[in-house]
Each structure stands twice: as structure tokens, then as C-alpha cells.
Specification:
Structural class: alpha/beta
Number of domains: 2
Low-confidence stretches: none
Shape: globular
Order of helices and strands: EEEHEEHEHHHEHEHEEHEHEEHEH
CATH topology of the largest domain: Rossmann fold
Distance between the termini: 39 Å
Oligomer: single chain
CATH architecture of the largest domain: 3-Layer(aba) Sandwich
CATH superfamily of the largest domain: P-loop containing nucleotide triphosphate hydrolases
Number of helices: 11
Number of strands: 14
Strand content: 25-35%
Length: 303
């Protein structure tokens, strides 16, 4: 099956700096593909290039079989986009926002109105069709933006940090909806800073840093291939003194703020030693995608 999006040697420079630096990417139809990276890594620029919203300095873009940006209009007709920030019309009701957006795709009123109940149900907004946007909570606005992106029944949905600002209940509702989309054969391209979200939703993940894809694979493959299987997080009084012991017990140790992360194959010796300490507390857990992300991209804060 043809890939809905293929990027080959994609490059974009600003002021002589390569923001996107020779990216090769091919996503699978009917799957959720995650594009993860620190702030400034090039994620949003890559999405804008793929959509033909900015011109590339080099490389090739094929979106739903169309060469971009030359055939951007035809390709975007089959795309749904959930941007980082909501751009809903505050003067319209929920229903009117869907109607206005559907008209951009050339859909007639009857077709849009036929799709509206299902989309509102999908977004958990079935009782809000006639509510105006300012009366909606932040989570409702975000879910309306997702419903709006589906008005044209797209083949590919691009989601740029879709659950930012949502409470846990709203996030789970959105996750449920996104899983339903892939079950229906839709392809998703997702960027997120929530590693648990990526681990739950994505079939394949590409981690991008400084404009380049540095690793790619399923969440399980990335965890198995790039990080020790067990983590013990240690914090409390006397941590600096205990670190010398940690260095002999752990395969790898990292400190972030007031927490020491001990990466191990077998946590038993570490835990046994910690049980003899006073003032130290610990949390033992399996390694996760966030551990992989921080190992590969670093723990330093990015602006």
C-alpha cells in the first residue's frame, strides 16, 4: 500500500541554519505515526513543509500521492489538521463552526449537516451543537477542533500536540477517538510532548532532534533497544552521599533536579541497599518511552 506521506532528503534553512536537515520519512497507511522531539527540533516545520505551507530548500514531498507543494490544493482536500492552537470562530456556534469549515472543502450544507451529529458524538459534544465557542471549556474547544478536522472525512489526519491543556478525562476521551480513527483505516501523524500518549497511540515513532531523525521504531522496540529495562528513582536527604554506592550498583545513573535515576537490569541490589538508608525515598518502575527520549535528546531544558 502506498505511503500517505513520504519525505525524501527534506531540508529547510532559516538564516543559514538547517531547521530540517535531510529528513527521510515514510508513514504507513492506517497506522498512527508519532513525530517526537524537543522544542525547536524541527517537528512543526516538518509538518508545515509536508502540507506545502512553506517552501523546502531541498528534497521531495509526496502527500497522498501528490507532489508537494505543486499539487498542494488537491492533497490538502484529503487531509485533516489539528493545529497546536485552536482557530475556532468565536462568533459561531459549535454547529456553525463545522458548517463554515466544511464549506472550505466544497461540501454542500446537506452533506455537512449529515456528518455533524456523528462528529459531535465522536468529540463528546453531542449536547453542545448550539453553544457558542466562548461558552466552551478549553477541553471542549480542543475536541471541537479535532471534530472540525474530520469534517471532510480525511484519509490522513495530522495532529500537532492535540491534547495540550486537556485534563486527564478529556485526554482519555481524545485517545479513545483517535484509536477509533485508526480502526476505521485512517492514518494519523501525531506530534506530542506527552510520552505516555505516544506510547499508547503510536504504532511507529520517529524521534527528531536538531532537524534530523535520530531513531525510529515501535515504542516497544525503542524501549527494548535503547534503554535498560528497570529504573529506580531516588530522592531525599543524603542523596549525594549515596550516589557513590549507586555508581557501583547501577549500569547508568543520571541526576535531574533533586532526583537520581538509576538504570539497571536487576533492581534488587539497588533496592536492598536503599532499604538500609535513612532519609532516602525511591520509586521502582519499568523503563518507558520518556527514558528513551531523554537519553537520546538530553535532559537540558530547550527554549
Amino acid at each position: 500500500m502506498t505511503s500517505p506521506l513520504t519525505l525524501t532528503k527534506l531540508t529547510k534553512r532559516y538564516a543559514g541554519v538547517a531547521v530540517v536537515d535531510g529528513i527521510d520519512l515514510s508513514i504507513s497507511a492506517g497506522k498512527c505515526h508519532g513525530l517526537l522531539g524537543p522544542n525547536g527540533a524541527g517537528k512543526t516545520t516538518t509538518l508545515r513543509l509536508a502540507l506545502g505551507l512553506v517552501a523546502a530548500d531541498g528534497g521531495d514531498i509526496r502527500l497522498l500521492g501528490h507532489k508537494m507543494p505543486e499539487a498542494g490544493r488537491a492533497a490538502r482536500a484529503r487531509i485533516g489538521v489539528v493545529p497546536q492552537t485552536d482557530s475556532l470562530d468565536p462568533d459561531f456556534t459549535v454547529r456553525e463552526n463545522l458548517l463554515a469549515y466544511g464549506r472550505y472543502f466544497g461540501l454542500d450544507r446537506a452533506e455537512i449537516e449529515a456528518r455533524t451529529p456523528e462528529l459531535l458524538e465522536f468529540a463528546g459534544l453531542a449536547g453542545k451543537a448550539d453553544a457558542r465557542v466562548p461558552s466552551l471549556s478549553g477541553g471542549m474547544k480542543r475536541r471541537l477542533t479535532l471534530a472540525r478536522a474530520l469534517i471532510n472525512d480525511p484519509d490522513l489526519v495530522i495532529l500537532d500536540e492535540p491534547t495540550t491543556g486537556l485534563d486527564p478525562q478529556a485526554r482519555h476521551l481524545v485517545w479513545q477517538g483517535l484509536r477509533r480513527l485508526t480502526a476505521r483505516g485512517k492514518t494519523l501523524l501525531l506530534t506530542t510532548h506527552f510520552m505516555d500518549e505516544a506510547e499508547r497511540l503510536c504504532d511507529t515513532i520517529s524521534i527528531i532532534d536538531r532537524g534530523r531523525i535520530i531513531v525510529e521504531g515501535s515504542p516497544r522496540e525503542l524501549i527494548r533497544g535503547h534503554i535498560e529495562p528497570q529504573v529506580v528513582e531516588v530522592y531525599g536527604e543524603g542523596l549525594e552521599h549515596w550516589r557513590a554506592s549507586a555508581e557501583t550498583l547501577c549500569r547508568r545513573c543520571e541526576t535531574t533536579g533533586e532526583t537520581l535515576f538509576c538504570y539497571v537490569d536487576d533492581p534488587a541490589p539497588v533496592i536492598a541497599d536503599l532499604e538500609r538508608q535513612t532519609g532516602l525515598r525511591y520509586l521502582h518502575r519499568p523503563a518507558n518511552l520518556e527514558d528513551v527520549f531523554l537519553k537520546l535528546t538530553g535532559r537540558d531544558l530547550r527554549d
